[in-house]
# Entry
Amino acid sequence: MIWRLDRVSQRTFFWYDTTIDLTKPKKAKKTFRNPIIQAKEMQLEMEYHNLTKAQLARKLGISRARVTQMQNLLKLPCELLQEIRSMGDC
# Structure
């Protein structure tokens, strides 16, 4: 270990080990789900487990309003749904 002394203020000093990397780790790149595919998965889960929107929201850790918004996406015209779905997922 190699220790280094830095002066932080007039009366404060900071000792640290120079062999330890103090830089912040890089954050992972965010990935975004296709909302149509995600909404369809929510709908299938609600049907399979016989859940209400509130129960599904609690299970997923999101608001009931968000579940409703996602379900409303499935009411879009078929052509638009196909175009969005064709963009892929993740």
